[in-house]
Automatic annotation (TrEMBL):
Coiled coil: none annotated. It comes from the Bacteria. This is GNAT family N-acetyltransferase. GO terms for molecular function: protein-N-terminal-alanine acetyltransferase activity. It comes from Pseudomonas extremaustralis. The lineage of its organism: Bacteria, Pseudomonadati, Pseudomonadota, Gammaproteobacteria, Pseudomonadales. GO terms for cellular component: cytoplasm. The keyword Heme does not apply.
Length: 184
């Protein structure tokens, strides 16, 4: 694995390491109500200190093989619009896909484009064999993104996650390397 976080370019996006001067923007974006509500680990409110701590830890988490997390930036303007990540399990050659896109950039294909790029990197460069993702059953947008990029629906885990005092059903999706590489 490379020593630095990768820089990935797609037709519309740049996926790259976040810089500490982006903490205020990250904080603002992550405080949009649907972000914390639809994710497992993003606190609400999302403070400036939380953003700084997150950014400061990204390189180290990548170096030890725990997490690849990149800022999603628009190619044309460089604007930070979200986060895409793979939680890594080196022992099992597995990655867990996650991420979010700012409210003003949803339904434009950015989430799918970022997810596809980080999955390509995970399979080709990190040697992953399987990449999966989960979302709350009520989060139809995330489920649609995972299906759109070619992850197969594997089932529903009933009441598998306690979120804000409510047991949430989780939908599971995944792809394995040989199927991913053969997709159209």
């Amino acid at each position: 694995m490379s020593q630095s976080l990768p820089y990935l370019s797609t037709s519309c996006l740049l996926l790259r390491a976040l810089e500490i001067d982006q903490a205020a923007v990250l904080c603002s974006l992550a405080n949009e109500p649907k972000i914390a509500d639809n994710t497992a680990n993003i606190p609400s409110p999302y403070t400036l200190e939380t953003a700084r701590t997150f950014i400061d830890g990204l390189q180290d988490k990548y170096l030890v093989g725990d997490l690849l997390s990149l800022g999603v930036h628009l190619h044309e303007t460089g604007e930070l619009i979200g986060i895409v990540s793979l939680r890594l399990n080196a022992r099992h050659h597995y990655g867990s896909l996650g991420g979010w896109v700012a409210a003003h950039c949803r339904n434009q294909g950015y989430a799918a484009e970022a997810a596809r790029a980080v999955m390509d990197f995970g399979f080709a460069e990190l040697g992953l064999y399987r990449v999966g993702g989960q979302c709350f059953a009520r989060n139809k947008e995330s489920a649609r993104v995972m299906e759109k990029i070619g992850l197969l629906y594997e089932g529903c885990m009933r009441a598998a996650f306690l979120k804000n005092g409510v047991y949430e059903d989780l939908l599971g999706f995944a792809a394995v390397r040989n199927v991913w590489e053969c997709r159209a």
